[in-house]
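Co-fold these.
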Amino acid sequence: MKKMADADNRWARNRQFIQDYGWSYIFIALPILIFLTFTLYPLLRALVMSFQTYHVMGSEWVGFKNYAYVFHRELFSKALINTLLYTLGTVPINIIISLGLALAIFQLGKKSQTFFKASFYLPAVASGVTISLVWLFIYDPMPEGLMNQFIHLFGFANVNWLGKVDTALLSLMFLTFLGGHGSGLILYLASLGGIPKTIYEAADIDAASTWSKFRNITWPLLKPTTLYMLVINVIGSFQVFMSAYLMTSGGPDHATTTIAYLIYQDAFEYFEFGVAAAESFILALIIVAISVLQFKYMGSDVEY
Amino acid sequence: MKGEIKDLKGASFYIKRGLIYMVLILWSLFTFLPLYWMLVSSFIDPNSSASLQFTLVPKEFTLASYSYFFTFNKNVLRWLFNSLLISGVVTLANVFFASMAGYAFSKLRFPGRNAFFWTLMSSIMIPGQVTLIPLYILVVNVFNMSDTYFAIILPGVVSVYNIFLMKQYMTSIPSTLIDAARIDACSEFGIFRKVIFPMAKPGVAVMAIFTFVGQWNDFFWPFLVTKTSTMRTIQVGLSSFKFADSTQFGPMMAGAVIASIPMFILFFALQKYFLQGITIGAIKG
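Predicted complex below.
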């Protein structure tokens, strides 16, 4: 008898639980399912794979062999250096450009602000394929290439922009300077709008110079936005792939082989799934480490 | 004397304004240049390379490059249709599922809410390259979905980033409205449909637009899981032109214009949402 009452109780409690929370779990069911199937399972599978040599019928366990191979692989160090150079050469400059544009636009009237926001955002709507193909055309090594036409104006001779080891990576970096500042610019404008005017008025009373106002008020108060931009952009540029794939195929002589491109090649051209998985985990670790470092050194005086 | 100082201040103010406008206009022209060059050269006859000399105003106007692009592969229209269909379905699915999840995470209380939320969020930090290979094997070899719309759509059916966006947006909807609806004996789904969703519409619109544009512009995943020409999206098809014929820049630019024009139109029509949207997720709400 008591047992039955217990069961009844449990049943009632379960029913109450479903009544209270059932909808909540239904609302999040699909995202959880998608996460388990398309993120968590592949993540664990990739981890296993990085310790295996992949065969369609039964993979072979090889321990740390893939990792050891990657660490001693010259091409991997080269790809790592290329990616680092790309990041160092693009991220800080692009952040400075976004900030500079935002500071300039912020002083204008509302209508001009909207106009410039829209015009700087427009290139971001074009796809990576479009941008890559347009720049492939601009960098055409023939005299008709737009870049070559431009340097002819100053009397320079033709350059094979994407075909030479010393200019290929630089060319891929340069194209990020023209365009793609829309979202950073809008973020900076939003944070500039959040700085109380009274702080600047107080500085004006002390007859502070424009530079000193920027150095002591604007820059520190924009730090959370700068940190956000830095982390997001570094992560993005560590995964740069499209331009290397569509414009240079990683060449010439691997001068534009980035880590993401190398992983793609190993996986889908040479079908070395194990090596590619090991490389992808090293990339993930590097990204996490850099993000943590950025938060530690830049975030120490940032309040959230 | 006093008036003079005022005038002087006025003059320097206008000089400064003028300089700012000049710099901004110059820089925006620079950023427009690649896209402008794309447009101009798409109207050039593909057979006359001499006309590639840069001019601000196009020297010729022919649609020859466009007809060349449309004839190089008979599936170009199909690619556009595929992109439209896939982007549309992914957007609708996200509107539905991400806003439901956003509602649950922002307004409902249930055991494990935070744990579930942060578990989902953690996937933002995982670089795509890590999960790519097993994802590919799963979809192509295990699910046998290679060359289907399902293969392209399924992994993107509800994005974690969109859930985050919706949660941020819905947190600002007053909870008293929900309580009132609950007293009126609305079911939880009824509350979502009749109260929350209508109020969250501006946020949903932003999410929908960014999802649509992102899916339309996506290249890598559709490229990996499609093999036959009829299943390509416009981005993948456009990139295949590059490998088929990398010397024909006129038609290549025509293709680039065709692939991006729908997004430019969308941008001009819905500018307001684009410019608002970026700040919803990033600035802590």
